[in-house]
Design a protein that fits this description.
50% helix, Hect, E3 ligase catalytic domain fold, 3 domains, globular, alpha/beta, Rossmann fold, 4-stranded parallel beta sheet
């Protein structure tokens, strides 16, 4: 019988070095997959590998494989086990469905995948069990860590200024590093900036190690992190971070586990240093340079934010798409606003436009009505569209699970669990949509905007900024000149509160 498979793709993945050492290496997976390919009579084989977590689909090897499959160059995909595709059942199902759509067959070395009702059910059960086991392992790990913290044991072994006692599982002062920490606080309290301290340490060749490697003093933020870390006052905060899935990075302080450690500085020094950090942030020359009229409210019509930066002693506005040019080939690469625009010039154009609009209540009303009818102006509408697309996608997933349940391809509990998750997501998405929809409609009446503009002082930069904060929600800036050497030509779109 003629072999119908011409080209086989092998996909292998390891998530940790430990996993690779324990007999589950990429090499061992590829060897087993090649044996399977030979059994099927396939000699034309291409390999795709990843060394990363299986909880995300954003993997270089997998992305390349999916692209090739869609191009029609792959006939069959061979994988050691289904959990190599993903650790999450939902992702496994998504990838499997995609592979089946664009190539002839998906084969596993360990565990056969059959294109039948029973085969699909077995696949679902195995994937669900694997995901359950992973979640239980993570849960046990977190519970174990918490129990250790409650006993006063520290699991994090790296904190500059301290050495880690493996036997006692706690921190002890590293005299040499502690001297540097005390010196940082002393220098900062007495007037030196974080950058000046950094340069001083670089000149003096002050050593700094992390995980046994010399990393040096390479950024002022390193100095600031030390200054902001209250562990140096004698309390190590454990169990303070939420999981990556959580919206907030930190747990509520009431949930933190405070473990006493030797203090390197006293609380008074810490408070003085952090008071000074706040003062320096509020009053820094950098901050002053950025106090333009459109700071924090400027947006580009391409959808990205606009930020200010200084170059050649001049301040500019620039679309954030500038930072993405080398990373992708998206639409943002063609954004004209990604070119430097003189901040003073943009502010001048904006203020003239605002003053012209706010000359009367009738003028404000007319402008707002025009603005609300211009879809291109407000990227909020684009955000709403994206949310609507996400809602439709989740509804399709919902229908798919119901279909699987009806066909007995998924058990009651798993179906219920997944439907509950989707339901929560849908509620959240609909809430976001409602909030964004509300924000499209102006809160303030033209009369209110006019009276504010008419009655408030607007001579100094700060007075203008105070006024703008009261009546303007966002300002969209669009550059429209195509010639790089031409005079800067921009359009301003104002979204009132």
């Amino acid at each position: 019988m003629e072999n119908i498979f011409h080209t086989a793709a092998i996909y292998a993945r390891v998530s940790t070095k430990k996993q690779a050492r324990e007999g589950f290496s990429l090499e061992s997976q590829i060897k087993a997959c090649r044996k399977k390919a030979n059994e099927l009579g396939i000699t034309n084989i291409v390999e795709y590998t990843d060394e990363t977590s299986g909880t995300t689909l954003n993997r270089p090897g997998l992305l390349k494989l999916r692209k090739e499959i869609k191009n029609g160059t792959i006939d069959i995909v061979i994988c050691y086990d289904q959990d190599r595709l993903s650790r999450k059942l939902g992702q496994q199902l998504f990838i499997t469905e995609e592979f089946e759509k664009f190539c002839k067959k998906l084969v596993f070395v360990y565990g056969d995948y059959k294109h039948s009702v029973d085969g699909r059910l077995s696949y679902l059960i195995k994937g669900a069990i694997a995901e359950y086991e992973r979640e239980k392992i993570l849960e046990r790990c977190m519970r174990g860590k918490k129990e250790k913290f409650l006993k006063g044991e520290i699991t994090n072994s790296h904190l500059f200024g301290y050495k880690y006692n493996k036997n006692k599982k706690t921190y002890e002062i590293n005299d040499d590093e502690a001297k540097v920490v005390r010196r940082i606080f002393d220098l900062y309290i007495n007037g030196m900036s974080s950058r000046q301290i950094l340069m001083l340490f670089q000149m003096e060749n002050i050593p700094k190690f992390f995980r046994g490697k010399s990393v040096g003093w390479n950024d002022p933020s390193v100095i600031l992190r030390i200054l902001k870390n209250d562990s140096y006052t004698g309390v190590f905060h454990a169990f303070k971070h939420n999981s990556p899935k959580e919206k907030n990075r930190y747990k509520d302080k009431s949930e933190w586990i405070n473990i006493p450690i030797p203090a390197i500085i006293d609380k008074e020094q810490f408070e003085l240093a952090n008071k000074k950090i706040k003062e320096n942030t509020d009053n820094s020359s950098r901050n002053e340079k950025r106090t333009h009229l459109l700071s924090r409210i400027a947006r580009c019509t391409c959808g990205r934010s606009i930020y200010s930066r200084t170059a050649n002693n001049k301040d500019y506005y620039i679309c954030a798409s500038k930072n993405y040019k080398k990373k992708d080939e998206s639409k943002y690469n063609n954004c004209l606003t990604s070119r430097f625009m003189l901040a003073d010039k943009v502010d001048e154009i904006f203020w003239k436009a605002l003053s012209k609009i706010c000359i009367s209540k009738e003028n404000i009303e007319k402008y707002v009505n025009q603005q609300e009818n211009n879809i291109k102006v407000d990227s909020i509408l684009l955000q709403i569209k994206k949310i609507e697309e996400s809602i439709n996608k989740k509804k399709k997933e919902q229908n798919k699970i119901i279909e699987w349940f009806t066909d007995s391809l998924i058990d009651d509990n798993l179906a219920k669990e997944k439907l509950e998750k989707i339901s929560k997501l849908l509620i959240n998405l609909k809430k976001q949509k409602e909030e964004l929809t509300k924000s499209v409609n102006r809160k303030n009446k033209p009369e209110f905007i006019y009276n504010i503009f008419k009655n408030e002082k607007k001579v100094t930069l700060e007075e203008k900024r105070n006024l703008i904060r009261k009546i303007v929600d966002k300002v969209y800036v669009e550059r429209i000149d195509d010639n790089k050497n031409s005079k800067m030509d921009i359009r301003i779109y104002i979204i009132f509160k």
